[in-house]
């Protein structure tokens, strides 16, 4: 039968992780930590299971978790979401974004994405029958180009997907940039899907400016978070969406026939764990130290470092090292040098070549050291 996604193959993250495993390379490709989470977390999951919290939770999520998330957003970003009608627990950010797209995009609607962008956005829009409108971030700096975004907004524009802190380039939108987006959208009814999965990994004292912190944006936004990134549990696949009640009502119509609910004991564990803000407030310092150690090591190589304001990704320009295309370079780096990376071209529909590769530093210090020893041979 005709494919719904004719141009889609296996994701680059799966491909590079498989190659890293096969070749024994240090895997700095797919974004996940190689260290475990706080043992208190699985302990709390076990306790919830032993307490018999093993049946379906409410469709929108365990109330205690929704309340904890609403409280966190209120404290950090100053927007008071109603836990009952405005916060939904999802099966990670991936399902959150797909569900947000499915609930608002009608066939023929346009959705703007800012390239390079996470690989699930475009297929999500296509599955909804929407048209993907790609606007490049400013080449080199990867900052938003509001003139280009404004020019892309038309009568069929239904939504824009924004991701800050940004995977793969590590840029973090400033308050002025978020405000500029609010100003641009003000005369329109364009919705914002704000992918904020790296919200707690922002460095050098910068703030994370959530869409929820700008009232004009909060009123039109699905704000997406993921516990996988924040608590080092990417395999748990639990996230949240905060959105005004009217948007949440539409979101839940799709959510209930999509996953219906998310793992009960894990939600109870996360609710209890969120009572202490230290683990997420301490995350920026934890990853900043890894970023600094990694960048210091890379400074001795011929790789040119792009700025890394947030996330756990460092993008490098390898043009002084090799004239290979990005995919070929990352494959060579994996098989010959023993370090797996992700080509930035994978985040563009046209696969454009800029001689850039992404390295994930969410790794134990010894893993980073081993990678640096290998990369220093470049
Ligand atoms: N958005 C971005 C920008 C991501 O990097 C990721 C995964 N790393 C996701 C969404 C998906 O998150 P989750 O694993 O919670 O589905
Ligand atoms: N988000 C992670 C990354 O960017 C990987 C997620 C995935 O494997 N799909 O590397």
Automatic annotation (TrEMBL):
Pfam families membership: Aminotran_1_2 (PF00155)
Entries under InterPro entries matching the protein: Aminotransferase_I/II_large (IPR004839), Kynurenine-oxoglutarate_AT (IPR051326), PyrdxlP-dep_Trfase (IPR015424), PyrdxlP-dep_Trfase_major (IPR015421), PyrdxlP-dep_Trfase_small (IPR015422)
GO molecular function annotations of the record: kynurenine-oxoglutarate transaminase activity; pyridoxal phosphate binding
One GO cellular component term noted in the UniProt record for this chain: cytoplasm
Swiss-Prot/TrEMBL cofactor(s): pyridoxal 5'-phosphate
Domain Aminotransferase class I/classII large per the UniProt entry, residue ranges: 26-373
Keywords in alphabetical order: Aminotransferase, Pyridoxal phosphate, Transferase
Family label: Belongs to the class-I pyridoxal-phosphate-dependent aminotransferase family.
Protein name: Pyridoxal phosphate-dependent aminotransferase
Source taxonomy: Bacteria, Pseudomonadati, Pseudomonadota, Betaproteobacteria, Burkholderiales
């Amino acid at each position: 039968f005709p494919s719904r996604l004719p141009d889609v193959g296996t994701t680059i993250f799966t491909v590079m992780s498989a190659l890293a495993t096969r070749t024994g390379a240090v895997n700095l490709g797919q974004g996940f930590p190689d260290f475990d989470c706080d043992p208190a977390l699985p302990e709390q999951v076990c306790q919830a299971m032993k307490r018999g919290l093993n049946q379906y939770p409410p469709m929108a999520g365990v109330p205690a978790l929704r309340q904890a998330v609403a409280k966190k957003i209120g404290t950090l970003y100053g927007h008071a979401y109603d836990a009952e009608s405005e916060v939904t627990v999802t099966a990670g950010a991936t399902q959150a974004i797909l569900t947000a797209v499915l609930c608002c995009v009608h066939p023929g609607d346009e959705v703007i994405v800012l390239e390079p962008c996470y690989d699930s956005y475009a297929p999500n829009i296509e599955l909804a029958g929407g048209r993907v409108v790609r606007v490049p971030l400013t080449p080199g700096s990867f900052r938003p180009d509001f003139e280009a975004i404004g020019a892309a907004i038309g009568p069929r524009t239904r939504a824009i997907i924004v991701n800050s802190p940004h995977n793969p380039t590590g840029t973090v939108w400033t308050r002025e940039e978020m405000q500029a987006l609010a100003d641009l959208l003000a005369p329109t009814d364009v919705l914002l899907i704000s992918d904020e999965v790296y919200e707690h990994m922002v460095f050098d004292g910068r703030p994370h400016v959530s869409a929820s912190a700008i009232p004009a944006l909060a009123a039109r936004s699905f704000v997406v978070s993921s516990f996988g990134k924040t608590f080092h549990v990417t395999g748990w696949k639990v996230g949240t969406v905060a959105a005004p009640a009217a948007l949440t009502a539409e979101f839940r119509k799709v959510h209930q026939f999509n996953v219906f609910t998310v793992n009960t004991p894990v939600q109870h564990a996360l609710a209890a764990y969120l009572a202490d803000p230290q683990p997420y407030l301490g995350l920026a310092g934890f990853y900043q130290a890894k970023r600094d150690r990694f960048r210091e090591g890379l400074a001795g190589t011929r790789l040119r470092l792009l700025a890394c304001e947030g996330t756990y990704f460092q993008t490098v320009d390898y043009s002084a090292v090799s004239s290979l295309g990005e995919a070929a370079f990352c494959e060579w780096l994996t098989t010959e040098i023993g370090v797996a990376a992700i080509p930035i071209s994978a985040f563009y529909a046209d696969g454009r070549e800029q001689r850039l590769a992404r390295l994930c530093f969410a790794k134990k210090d010894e893993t980073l050291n081993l990678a640096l020893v290998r990369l220093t041979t470049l």
